[in-house]
Design a protein that fits this description.
Layout: E1 2-8, H1 15-27, E2 32-37, H2 51-62, E3 68-70, H3 83-94, E4 98-104, H4 117-123, E5 125-129, E6 141-143, H5 151-156, H6 168-193, E7 197-203, E8 213-219, H7 222-235, E9 244-246, E10 251-255, E11 259-265, H8 266-272, H9 274-289
Parallel strand pairs: 1-2, 1-4, 2-3, 4-5, 5-6, 8-11
Antiparallel strand pairs: 7-8, 9-10, 10-11
Helix pairs in contact: 3-4
Length: 290
Amino acid sequence: MNIAVFGGSFDPPHIGHEEIIKVATRKLDIDKLFIVPTYLNPFKDKFLAPPKMRYTWLKKLSSNYPKAEVLDFEIKQNKSIPTIETIKHIKKQYNPEKIYLIIGADNLANLHTWTEYEELKKLVNFVIASRDDEKIPNNLQKLDIHVNISSTKLRENIDKKYLPKSLSNEVTQYYNRKTMNKRIEKIINILDEKKAENIQLFDMKDTDYFVNEVIIATTLGQKHGLSLLDYLKKDLKADESYLEIEPSDEWSVVDLGDVLIHLMTSEYRAKYNLEEFLSKRETQKKEEED
């Protein structure tokens, strides 16, 4: 029995990963391809999508390839697992005649730093998936993969054209939501640190409102409101694009395209009562979902 192992974070899975699965199952002399999502990549300190979610995505993706199977060995450990441990586990469980270990060409430079590298070399035949014109030594087996995209780049800017069709919608929705949450958290933290009061967040997504999120905060007075506006412009400059900023002593508005921020004195907030209007929209959306 010949086995190939293809491990990674898959955070998120993309068309490059699918191409490796497709080419490996077709070109390599194997009976089984194990796709192994990490709990946490040994060279990273965090993940974005949780391990079980990535495992579920890969199960759906691999269902189109009969030789492929997703192995949950690493994520069940709830910690970072070096590749050598996964290979030893597979060898013990399946006793294969040959194990191919598929890695990206971008890993060649630091391959010698992997845990128990010398032992790993004795247990596997390395198969290198081409990427970004990285040079691959002639003595190593190669998979020609003509997709240059990385999960890191996708996390920064989710683009459906780089996602497998079977996962496109749910992966896009998840990462966009996570990105939005980080943005909202940063905005609220800035307002809180600079002494804004009664900060409220309203979820307008999936309503007929013109933005996805609305944040309202009470200022301590006219000068404080303008100071808050300056802090937001300064601290969000690198991450946000401003469609419009309407400064005012009593009521400033910041339009980030999909997020709207209202900075209001307590008198103006009480007078216009935006919370009631926005709360009704939120409630209407929840009732429609139910």
